[in-house]
Amino acid sequence: MVPNPLAMLSVWLFGGLLAFAGATAYAELAKLCPRSGGEYSYLRQAFGALAGFLSGWISLIAGFSGAIAASAVAFAAYLGHYLPGAASQQTLISIPLAFTSLSVSARSLTAASIILFFGVIHICGLGLGRLTQNALAVLILAIIVGFTVAGFALGNGSMAHLTPVSAPFSGMKWLLALIPVMFTYSGWNAASYVCEEAVDQERTVGRALAIGTSVVIAIYVSLNLLFVYALPMGRLGSAINVGDTAAQALFGTSGEITTPALIIALAGAISSMSLAGPRVYFAMARDGAFLHAFSRVHPRFHTPAFAIALQTIWSIVLVIVGGFEQILMYTGFAIVVSSGAAVFALFTINRRIGTTAMSLRTKILAGGFVIASLAIVINVVAQAPRTSVIGLLLIAAGIPIFLWSKKRQSSCESRAAILPETAAVDATE
Fold it and tell me: Tens-of-pLDDT digits for all 429 residues of the chain?
């Protein structure tokens, strides 16, 4: 999509700067609204229950669940390099339905198993989940840093690959390229989803967002610079596995030597999304915007077990049924809308309840993030109107569920109010 090496690197750098600007705004939001749920909590407080719910709805149908499904299928595919049977796409079970049929293969079962594994891990306690997540993060960080340093120090690359090429390219394509880049950076706001469970929220959450985002930016920009250093843009654009192709060019090796790193990275991504996403649905249910059952906390492990189970089951359904690629494509721009609206909400919430003045630096970064998000969305709608309309319809499908949940909540509250009165009448009789 971006044939010029410098333009490609600028997309990653600009996407990282946007992520840092968003992280700065989210750190401020976490001070003003120290509740778990991320965008859901911020949009609910700024613009009302429906706006918050639709943000959470996007997270459920695609933002987290769809991304988990995609990562799990990729995990199974890479695992197949070592366990071929685990990645086989041969149909094991075929279940006929009204308009289609479900085909269960070894790959889909492997993907479902890894989703279930991390779902159970995170149900069994925040401590165990955090330990697993931190171990995976440190391991993949060490592998990437080692690979990058070795590539520049010992690899057979060339900085001449950075020479601009004369290929047709437009600003519109550059903006479109920001969508998958921003999706790749999407973990920058993860700390905001669990801020209620953090110790010393005001300092811890902001620090985690700033440090985590800065590290991720440095990793992605350095890694992509290494890929350009290793390969000319022509080969880079046609490579199926960029990491292995770059490693072969740098070190003269053969085989898929980066596959273990990809497996670990995908496992880490599934784990982090399995941890963060359910806190959104938990917060929605606790506020009465979603079914009350998903606000329940496990009596022993003190985790939002029902919300974790919901996301786990839906992610597995997406793996078995398929179609998550289309869902992610249709709602990719909506994820940008959600985060952009959440940062815009900072100005509303700060004006309403802010106890201290927001710094000029935060205002500039937050404003820049909102403007860039708006430009990306407008460009997507203009370039791909059909995709955008389908995405909006998927989002709108959540409105009936919201109204039904609110009606059910009101009905339960009415019954709860009547019961004490009935009991008092019975007592007098």
Answer: 566 788 888 889 998 898 899 888 988 888 888 887 888 999 999 999 999 999 999 889 888 888 898 889 989 988 988 898 888 888 888 877 766 667 789 999 999 999 999 999 999 987 888 788 888 888 888 888 998 999 999 888 888 888 776 665 666 777 777 777 877 777 667 767 776 666 666 667 777 788 888 888 998 899 989 999 998 887 877 766 788 888 888 888 765 677 888 899 889 989 989 988 999 999 999 988 898 889 999 999 889 999 999 999 999 988 888 766 666 666 667 778 888 999 999 999 988 886 677 888 999 999 999 998 888 888 878 888 887 888 888 889 999 989 888 887 777 766 666 655 544 444 444
**354: its two tokens:** 């802010």
CA dihedral 294, 117, 70, 12 (to 10 degrees): 90
Taking CA 270 as the corner, what is the angle to CA 148 and CA 188, rounded to the nearest 5 degrees? Answer: 65
Tokens describing residue 426: 């019975």
31: how many CB neighbours lie within 10 A of its CB?
18
Q: Which is nearest to 191 in space by CA: 367, 362, 35?
A: 35
The phi, psi pair for 297, rounded to 5°, reads -110, 140
Domain ranges of the chain: 5-396
What's the CA gap between 340 and 333, in Å, rounded?
A: 11
Query: CATH 1.20.1740.10: does it fit domain 5-396?
Result: yes
> Which tokens is 126 given?
């925040």
Angle (nearest 5°) at CA 24 between 21 and 26: 110
And the tokens for 337? 């809308």
Q: Closest Cα partner for 291 from 416, 400, 194, 406?
A: 406
